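Go through the following before class.
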Amino acid sequence: MVRILTRLGEVKKEMAAEHADMVDFNIGTISGNLRAIIADEDLDVKSGDVKPIKIKKIDILGNHIIYMCAYAAHGLGHPIAVGEETHLPITMDRHADFATFVAAIDGTIQKDDLLGVVIILPISLTHK
């Protein structure tokens, strides 16, 4: 019997390890990432305020969408959206550098506070 040796098994293991390093979670066959929303400035808020706040940049690859994690991470309130000054098509690489924060109680958000988490998921467009 002749056995042909190839690197195929080794390459498959390397690819699986690289994929595992690039994603934070899987839901079935869908892989995604989690990114922290971190305040990049101090901001005083009062209960009921809806204010923009500068955040540390979150990179968003083209053909990826963002969901806001509903679990409240900050004691004063919750971010409801992230974005950037110029809206770009979903097919382009983008980044978020501000968040819209809704305050539940009075207080001060401090630079480097964890405000929340975004979930980044890849998509495949069906129409151009």
